[in-house]
């Protein structure tokens, strides 16, 4: 146990708290297809700053994506997903630059506020027709990349776009899984170029990948045809809750 604490640069209490948080986030990720990073970032930031959580979260997202990729590849809306990934690569360096060189609390608060408003609009069945265009697709991807670089919650932006498409639950979930896998794979280069992926980030990522993967396996068991009709409202409510939690944390910081 001591060598794990030394490698992760955590106290025993911090380690146990992060293990519990990543297990819970993994369960939600297994069911919804997203929200792992958002949940960890919104809660674990009291232990580690965002810039140290971002490299750890890369490994957690990748481990979860590997477990879920089979269905994601087969059932996802691939053209939509590829467009989002390509556009996100443009936004990632901008977001990391903001994180490393500017005060970003205002940017995070703005991004989270937009997510709350848009998700509530979706729950109210308002038609956001501007999203159903190439500009809406690529604009969403770029914003997701920026938000990923700032707070690693770009998946929430993409989740909103995918949910707005109003496709079958299995297609929405699979598209999110595929996006997060491809996005994580391609963003490693950006993290290395900016010097964000360091030894402690890798160590924490590999260690906490274990409870994350166990949680994902549990969460996948919850995604059944019986619960499919509740998938979209559950995800939208989850988006609102996570965004509000992030806003509260931002204001108290």
UniProtKB/TrEMBL annotation:
Its main location: membrane. It holds the Pfam family TauE. The keyword Membrane applies. One of its GO terms (cellular component) is plasma membrane. PANTHER family: MEMBRANE TRANSPORTER PROTEIN (PTHR30269:SF37), TRANSMEMBRANE PROTEIN YFCA (PTHR30269). Belongs to the 4-toluene sulfonate uptake permease (TSUP) (TC 2.A.102) family. This is Probable membrane transporter protein.
